[in-house]
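Structure request: Uma2 family endonuclease, Actinacidiphila bryophytorum.
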Amino acid sequence: MTPEHYAALRAVVALLGPAVPGALEITREGIVHDPRSPGGPHELTAARVSRRLEKVMPEGLLAHTGTPDVEDVHEGVMRHPDVMVIAEADMEVEGSFDPTALPAAIEVVSRSNPDNDWVGKMRDYPLLGIPVSVLFDPRTGEGAVLSDIHPTPNGPRYATRTDFVYGEDVTIGAWTISTADLPRYR
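Returned structure:
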């Protein structure tokens, strides 16, 4: 993707984003629309995971569920993790966060577009240099922790995948939290 093409996509997202329900993100393939609606099991899972992480992380780190996005203009990718582990100091910037500042990105798999999380973001997060990515899937009550970025002919990918089921403890980077009582989609 050329810098001009990325700038044009970024302008479209900035213009339409506030008026479009859900989230607009940019990948190398173009704009991705996730028409998720706020609330319900998706947001409750993100909130519970965030709170549980913040209880075990050191002072100065947050499990942030808000905005802005993470963006690498050079790679032509702008994504919005549901939960971002990030140092408070790395949040003191204007515009998007630097994805390489995130020790981990966490996704709650969307009911409306699960491939965006399981396929697209799992392709883009190692490309952005995010060392650990975790998926919580309220559709199945299962998830996965991906880590150990390594090069492949198709670009960087995670080499290690550790699956879990809701109810087990899960280790995200250096921190272990419970997955008990996480909601499921009905």
